Amino acid sequence: MAAATPSAASERFARIALLPMRSIGSIGAGGATSLLGPFRELIDHREMLSLLVKRDLKARYKDSALGFLWVLARPLMQLAIYFVVLGHFLGAARGIPDFAIYVFAGLTAMGLFQEILVGGTGSILANAGLVKKVYVPREVFPLASTGAALFNFGIQLLVLVIATFAIGKPPLHIGLIYFLPALALIVVYGLALALLCGAVNVYLRDTQYLVEVLTMLLFWASPVVYAWQMVSQLVQNFWLIEAYTNNPLTLAVLGFQRAFWVAGDEVAWPDHLMLRTLIALVIGVVLLFVSHRVFLRLQGNFAQEL
Questions:
Q1: Residue 175 CB contacts under 8 Å (≥ 6 apart), including other chains
Q2: What is the mean pLDDT of residues 139-151?
Q3: Residue 60 lies in domain
Q4: For 13-41, b where at least 16 C-beta lie within 10 A, e where not — what string?
Q5: Mean pLDDT value across residues 34-53
Q6: Dist. CA 177–CA 29, nearest whole Å
Q7: Residue 135 has pLDDT above 70, yes or no
Q8: Is residue 98 in a domain?
């Protein structure tokens, strides 16, 4: 095929120059259009998001004999350690009936939050090849990590429910209404922080290690292996106990325990737990929106930084 003549190339460049420029990966000044644009892009790339979730799940357990059963290995090992060491050796199980269910409910909630946040923080770096070569909305990478975390969470939740039936105390009680708001709290706050930390991690690589340390601190700052009731008795300062109780992770863990720990029906819980949860959820939605806007501001130089 003959090469294009200089005049033909000039005409082509002239036609390209007349095309309107469209900003990709940034926030424009188009009012409602600019607000909805990123969400429309995500909807347009939903098949890509689904493929990334499946890829993450398959890659994690590739060539593994047990496959997705490894999802249960860590929480079950943690449960065994906390149940034996903390529950019986150190006496944490005293005063907490069905201590295993109590702990596993908290571990299931915290495990989901940790997986969303840690996975989302490293998701942009983990997909550096795609970021540099192909344009897709960068949010799909933290969202894919969240989708994979929710799949693993579903398996752990199934085991938790089976365990409640095994001990003869299935969660068929009014407290089950706390499950969905508590789950929404974890997903909203986890994704909000994953978007923010994932973007910052591209510029400051120490962020992912800091997040791992902070998630460990948040675990022990939430009533997973000890009772909220114990904290309320030990801490006499009203404002300190209110700050501790209104921590979104504390509310989420309490919601899971309220939903699945039937033995806790006779235990004292924070006043207005559902109202506190819903208020925290509204604040979380605002935080998610702000984190997404920050993510959009920072994503313009992802390819260059990677």
A1: 258, 259, 262, 264, 265
A2: 89
A3: 35-305
A4: eeeeeeeeeeeebebeeeeeeeeebbeeb
A5: 69
A6: 41
A7: yes
A8: yes
